[in-house]
Amino acid sequence: MTPKQEDIEKAKRIRKGDVRTASRLIRNIEDQIPEAKTTIKHIFPHTGKAHIIGITGPPGAGKSTLADALIGSFREKNKTVGVLAVDPTSPFTGGALLGDRIRMQRHAEDHGVFVRSLATRGALGGLSKAVGDAVHVLDAMGKDIIIIETVGTGQQEVEIINHSHTVIVVLVPGMGDEIQAIKAGIMEIADIFVINKADRDGSRQLYAELMAMLDMANISSDGWRPPIIRIENVFEPISFQKKLEELSGKIEGHFQYLMDSQLLGDRLRRKSMMEINEALRASILEPVLKELAENGELEMMAEKLIQKKSDPYSLAEEIAGRYLKNVP
Amino acid sequence: MEDKKIRVMVAKPGLDGHDRGARVLARCFRDAGFEVIYTGCHQTPEQIVAAAIQEDVDLVGLSCLSGAHRYLFPRVVELLKQHGADDITVIGGGIIPDQDFQMLYDAGLKAIFTPGASLDSIVEWVKTNVKPMP
Questions:
Q1: In whole angstroms, what is the distance from residue A266 CA to residue A208 CA?
Q2: pLDDT score for A235
Q3: Beta-strand pair A192-195/B59-64
Q4: I need a labelling partner for A2 at 20 to 30 A (CA). Which of A32, A96, B101, B110 fits?
Q5: Neighbours of A308 (CB within 10 A)
Q6: Distance from CA of B48 to the nearest CA of A (A)
Q7: Who among B5, B43, B133 is closest to A105 (CB)?
Q8: Distance between CA B134 and CA A24 in Å, rounded?
Q9: Which residue range is the domain that position B117 belongs to?
Q10: β A192-195/A228-230 pair status
């Protein structure tokens, strides 16, 4: 088989739902093996069918447990589910402990569910650089629902909005005063808020603060007011199940709203812009940087800066002049 | 730029909830620069194998302190084979009597580590014997 045929074969197997081929491709994407791009080219036309749901929130808020519960709820409706669960990479050793899966292992043998853990490998936005393409793989496999779980986030990790249709921000009571609720960043990106562990002290206050924040916000910009769902105790099956149904109803409602309004188009455009941006960076900037690093020029340029013989902008213009045909 | 990592799964098959050892090992693999997936306790061999394939790991490390290793460990190897994934290395650890070693090696396990094995020796074994899959 020629390499090209091999890629077409791989793409076919992925579209038939072959787990081994899909998980190996995701691995090659993570490892930045150049051949992975070729396979992506073949599956890309077959993507765009899944409803992509992002789950984000602080560490220990219950994102994985919620993802597990949602998998169950979607499976009851006969929808297939793919999950990408991201956990942090150590800045010191490069290793990672990927533990989100523990909460979802009851679905391991269900052929309608595919769970893949990813390490951030230095990415700062709460996700891994591989997430965009890994979503394409799950989408091409025919998963109806794709859940992306971010690392435990703080205030600023909002990368998830570029990858999902519906963003769920999971909060827990007792994380700060009302000013936290009106800060920019993660509090702005929710399509749905979940207050988890709402049987704890401070849950009513958090609910009131979120309501006040939403009252202040200019919701007319997209017309969707994020609902707030309080989930009390995962160990009380009846009330938990009821809240879960409410949440999954809101998730479906939000997707419907996106489709009925112009918003789905807007989100797709935002995502496509980001994908082009990243692909350009990978095919233009990275090869240049690699060459400059290998021939020692990068080092020399740094030296020039230290000795104040040049400045970053002049150096960059010089390099751009050398590599690019038309420099504005 | 290519950046290949060793992916490892630490799993506890069977009805044994003593996972201190598994956790220590998971942490130690993390510190060795591996990407480690921990499944938690009470896993069936079927769950472990399904997860190992979805996660595309290079190595599955099984921990068992209950005495059921004679069934559980070989079953994991057998299921991996059935799924065409016998390129995944399987090692085991826990309370394993000496007289069971040969039986487990014959079943396809590549190494057994029992109490007293140093963490360094386990990491060293993995670095020597497991390479990230192509």
A1: 31
A2: 82
A3: unpaired
A4: A32
A5: 7
A6: 8
A7: B43
A8: 9
A9: 7-129
A10: parallel
End-to-end CA distance of chain A: 44
Residues of chain B contacting A23 with CB distance shorter than 8 Å: 53-56
Q: Does B23 touch chain A (CB under 8 A)?
A: no
CATH of domain A47-261: 3.40.50.300
Asked, for residue B90, whether it belongs to a domain, the answer is: yes
> How far apart, in whole angstroms, are the C-alpha atoms of residue A206 and residue A210?
6
Contact A108, B51 (CB under 8 A): yes
User: CA of B33: which chain A residue's CA is closest?
Assistant: A95
**Is B61 within a domain?**
yes
- Shortest CA gap B45–chain A (Å): 10
Distance CA A17, CA B118 (A): 41
Residue A38's SS3 state is helix
- B2 domain residue, yes or no: no
Interface probe, candidates B54, B80, B81, B83, chain A, greatest A C-beta count within 10 A: B54
Minimal C-alpha gap between A31 and chain B (Å):
5
Any chain A CB within 8 A of the CB of B89? no
Residue-wise pLDDT tens digits, B22-34: 999 999 999 999 9
**Mean pLDDT value across residues A132-145:** 97
At residue B56, φ and ψ (nearest 5 deg) are 50, 55
**With contact defined as beta carbons under 8 Å apart, do A125 and A62 qualify?**
no
Tokens, residue A35 = 């051949």
Residues of A in contact with B1 (CB under 8 A): 32, 286, 290
The pair of structure tokens assigned to B70 is: 């004679």
Describe the crossing of helices B45-55 and B69-82 by its angle, rounded to 10 degrees.
40
Q: Where are the beta strands (DSSP E) in chain B?
A: 7-11, 35-38, 59-64, 89-94, 111-113
**Reported ipTM:** 0.93
Q: Could you tell me if residue B134 is inside a domain?
A: no
The tokens for A154 are: 């703080």
Query: What CATH number is associated with residue B45?
Result: 3.40.50.280
- Within 8 A by CB and 6+ apart from B36, the residues are A95, A96, A97, A98, B7, B8, B9, B10, B26, B29, B30
Show Cβ contacts of residue B23 under 8 Å, excluding neighbours closer than 6 positions: B38
Give the model confidence (pLDDT) of A241-283 as tens digits: 999 999 999 999 999 999 999 889 988 999 999 999 989 988 8
